Amino acid sequence: MTTSLTLMAALVLGAPALKDKEPVAKGPGYLGVRFSKEGEGLIVTDVQPDSPALKAGVRPNDVIMKVDSMSLKDADTGELVKVVGAMRPGTVVALEIKRGTESLTIKVKLGARPADFQALSPDYPLVPPLPNND
Question: Core-most of 26, 28, 55, 104, by most CB within 10 Å?
Fold first, then answer.
């Protein structure tokens, strides 16, 4: 009886712990990294300025092994975009990262996808080709 009264009071009063779990924003989630396929996961090639990933401590050359316990070992680059895009801004995700020989878990609160966001296809080169001067 005490447990149910406590839960009811928390719901009525709007306990912060319960409110923090439900994101308010709408739209696709945004991590703010560029990456390419790496044998074990997805290697971060660039972290966007002022992005959720940068704020959480994600660095270039980190290898993202898992997102919320979903393995990226056999994933292509489009799968991470789909998974994060299916989440709402404000959602906190746990990234299992390999940084050198160290394994760590970084929690990232997803942001709102910027208006100028363009998801790169897996075939899109990260380095533009040199101009042809024929």
Answer: 28
Q: Strand runs (DSSP E) across 10-101, as ranges?
A: 29-30, 33-38, 41-47, 63-67, 70-71, 92-99
Q: Which CATH number characterizes residue 45's domain?
A: 2.30.42.10
Nearest to 65 by CA among 96, 31, 106, 104: 96
Write out pLDDT tens, residues 66-110.
999 899 988 888 888 899 989 999 999 999 999 999 999 999 999
51 belongs to a structural domain: yes
**Distance from C-alpha of 82 to C-alpha of 129, rounded to nearest angstrom:** 27
Q: pLDDT > 70: what percent of the chain?
A: 69
Q: Which domain holds residue 76?
A: 28-112
Provide the whole-model pTM.
Answer: 0.69
